[in-house]
Design brief:
By secondary structure, the chain is mainly α. It folds into three domains: about 130 residues, Tyrosine recombinase, N-terminal domain (DNA polymerase, domain 1, Orthogonal Bundle), CATH 1.10.150.130; about 170 residues, Intergrase catalytic core (hpI Integrase, Chain A), CATH 1.10.443.10; about 40 residues, no CATH class. Helix content is about 45%, strand content about 5%. It has 15 helices and five strands. A three-stranded antiparallel β-sheet has the order 1-2-3. The chain has a two-stranded antiparallel ribbon with strand order 4-5. Helix 1 packs antiparallel against helix 2 and helix 6 packs across helix 11. The longest helix is centred in the C-terminal third of the chain and has 30 residues. The protein starts with about 20 loop residues before the first helix and ends in an 11-residue tail after the last helix.
């Protein structure tokens, strides 16, 4: 685990003032007070306090104690130090974590320049790293969700409370901080809704809740909460065994323990949020409805779940890809015999289901007539028509008349008959196809 004030520290954040021993630390304290007065959430102020305390310590090690001494090259060196930083387990900081440390730096120096505490903003042109777009690491299946929900010991009052918590997370997809702040009057049993008061971004929203989750909440309110509440009752829905509010970190620790015990996978409260959105998409829910339930400002944030829900894509892949299954695929020509008329191998006419017969299809060029072997009157002319050749005076020159060889005349006649038969057959097939509606192919192609 990283120490407090270092990147990677995951303890519960508390906005603390920095020791005002240097002008830089004093400037950071004034900035945190200013954004708190503007309505930034306490968690945002706490995160920025942690990030900026790391910057102040890094600058102090290099002898920089005044905001006016900070230049763009200094901040670029700080950005590179975040890139090369290694946590206790030897892993680097993700680009998302690096951005979380650099965004408060840009906000600090922007505020210092706006309040005329420095002449220019050295962080105005500081380029942030590109955040990688990752899929949710853990998304539970339907059977896995039910296994996790059945894990708590219902003979223990805390187990009943935890079951009610997980049912609410699974049904509504709310965040852990939103669940920790739920009040008794936020749950409307008659309408089947939950009001999330001042969720992320200081925005209220109303989300639906299922009957099963409401049943477990009702059981918790009747059997368990009277044992946990400490007067005066402030109306918080879920309480600890000491009667205090649940903290987000405490929720993550308990929910993660149930997920690991049931599935051997890492889990947290957000696992139910990912699972709820994925299973609803698989069930046919519109992505914009899921966006409203989850409270996403941008649709692109919700679209990440479309990359997790690939059942439809997998079905198309299995249906259309020739190597998707472990079975031998036949040639497409082998399925042409599925017509009402099946052809025999010997070339003789075959019987149809209605009792008629169909002659075998032609297998090559038609029979070519040969002189002396065919009936009289079937031979074509002995000469092939040629252009008229004249002599120098314009009179026909009969001395240059050519006589075609005996075989050529027969090949020309046979080729003409074959071409005419081909056009007739194509025209007949085109007429039949125009009379019948076309059906789409296997993969939806015309």
């Amino acid at each position: 685990m990283a120490r407090r004030g270092q990147p990677g520290h995951s303890a519960r954040l508390v906005a603390e003032r920095l020791a005002s021993g240097t002008p830089m630390a004093a400037a950071v304290n004034d900035y945190l007070a200013a954004i708190g007065a503007k309505g930034f959430s306490p968690y945002t102020v706490a995160y920025r306090s942690r990030s900026l305390s790391h910057l102040v310590a890094w600058l102090a090690e290099r002898g920089v104690d005044h905001p006016a001494e900070v230049t763009k090259p200094v901040l670029e060196r700080y950005q590179r130090s975040l890139f090369h930083y290694r946590k206790a387990d030897g892993n680097p900081l993700s680009f998302r974590t690096q951005v979380s440390y650099l965004v408060p730096v840009k906000g600090l120096f922007k505020w210092l320049a706006q309040t005329n505490r420095i002449l220019f903003n050295p962080a105005s042109e500081l380029e942030l790293p590109r955040i990688e777009r990752r899929l949710p690491k853990v998304v539970l299946g339907l059977a896995e969700v039910e296994a996790v929900l059945a894990t708590p010991d219902l003979g223990d009052p805390v187990g009943v409370r935890d079951r009610a918590i997980m049912e609410v997370l699974y049904s509504t997809g709310m965040r852990r901080s939103e669940l920790a702040h739920l009040r008794l009057h936020d749950v409307d049993v008659e309408r089947g809704t939950v009001i999330i008061d001042q969720g992320k971004g200081h925005k209220d929203r109303m989300v639906p809740i299922g009957e099963r989750a409401l049943a477990w909440v009702d059981r918790y309110l009747i059997e368990v909460r009277p044992m946990l509440v400490v007067l005066p009752d402030e109306g918080v829905l879920f309480l600890t065994v000491e009667g205090n509010d649940l903290t987000p970190d405490h929720l993550t620790e308990r929910i993660g323990r149930y997920v690991r015990r049931a599935t051997n996978k890492p889990g947290s409260c957000h696992t139910f949020r990912h699972t709820m959105a994925t299973l609803m998409l698989e069930g046919g829910a519109d992505i914009r409805h899921i966006q409203e339930i989850l409270g996403h400002v941008q649709l692109s944030t919700t679209e990440i779940y479309t990359h997790v829900t690939i059942d439809a894509l997998k079905a198309v892949h299995t249906r259309c890809h020739p190597g998707a299954t472990n079975t031998r695929h036949r040639s497409p020509n082998s399925q042409l015999s599925s017509s009402p008329t099946e052809r025999s191998e010997g070339g003789s006419p075959t019987e149809r289901s209605d009792g008629g017969s169909v002659p075998p299809p032609p297998t090559g060029l038609p029979h070519i007539a040969r002189p002396g072997t065919d009936p009289p009157g079937t031979d074509p002319p002995d000469t092939v028509p040629r252009p008229t050749v004249t002599d120098g005076g314009g009179r026909p020159d009969t001395s240059r008349e050519d006589t075609a060889p005996p075989d050529m005349k027969q090949h020309v006649s046979a080729a003409g008959e074959l071409l005419a038969a081909h056009h007739a057959e194509a025209a007949e097939e085109a007429g039949e196809n125009n009379d019948q509606p076309q059906e789409p192919g296997v993969c939806g192609e015309p």
